[in-house]
Write the structure tokens for this entry.
Amino acid sequence: MLGKIREFDWREKFLNFDAVRNGIRLIFNPELTKPDFIWCDLNDCNLEKDLAKIDLVIVDIDLTLVVEGGEEIHEKIADQFEQIRQLCKVACFTNKNSTRNQKIEEKYNIKVFTAGKKKKPNPTGYRKIAKENGIKDFSRILFVDDSLSTGIASAKNLGMRTALIDYKSLLDSKKEKIWAKRVFGRNFDRFLLRRIFGKNAPFQN
């Protein structure tokens, strides 16, 4: 089942000047956003290897942990997410300010940070999460997101390890995936991935 379809605020989307500036910069140097890991979903994380030198995992919410607008961690990745929590500190980070975030905090006993006015890719939120978790060495943080050009790019720029998730990974049917592609697109992300990886670029379909 799909989560509640997000009601987009197009003014907010196009007035995220940090994202616009970041996007222009990445057009000329897409390598700045190359992720350390590319996973279909969290199940691709090698717990022993990928988290060997990681103290904190920061995870985006929508399309990474839950379907868009959802309140429950998707059953497909729930067990893996719990194993990650046993190995590292874990926090969630989202641009979306919603009462849903509080429900996730209460149900899963996990801190959800909201970007507020300084949305991803602005680095303020990332630094705040690191500080509140007592992490000074950003290389010991793994940031997981479905957005290459905003979430991943900013985390990588701060020196964090990064993992890109396929934004369609939590959707089961072909119809749902077509819906996601039409709504979310990720055209710029796919462009950057082609610039980085050429013909072997992931997540092009």
In short: The chain has a mean pLDDT of 86. The longest helix spans residues 17-28.
